[in-house]
C-alpha cells in the first residue's frame, strides 16, 4: 500500500503545491490530484515514476516498510 502521508509530507517539504503536482501527472486541476493524495482515488503504476521525479525520491520510498 502506498504511504500517502509520505507523499503529502514530501510534497510539503519540496514546497510543491497541489496544482503543480496535478499538472505533472496530467490532471486538469488540483482537486483531482488531492483525491489521489487523500486516498479517495488510487495512484496508478504509471504515476509512480512521475511522483518520484517530482518529489525527488525513489519509488520504493512510497511503500511502507
Binned, the helix content reads 40-55%
Order of helices and strands: HHHH
Strand segment count: 0
Please outline the major beta sheet. Answer: none
User: Might you state the CATH topology name?
Assistant: 434 Repressor (Amino-terminal Domain)
- Discrete helix count: 4
Fraction of residues in β-strands: under 5%
> Which architecture would the CATH scheme give at its second level?
Orthogonal Bundle
| Cα gyration radius (Å) | 10 Å
Mean pLDDT value: 96
Structural class: mainly alpha
Distance between the termini: 10 Å
The CATH class designation is Mainly Alpha
Unreliably modeled segments: none
General description of the model:
This protein is mainly alpha-helical. The protein has one domain: 434 Repressor (Amino-terminal Domain). The protein is built from 4 helices and no strands. Helix 2 crosses helix 3 (30-37). The chain is globular. The termini are close together. The mean pLDDT is 96.
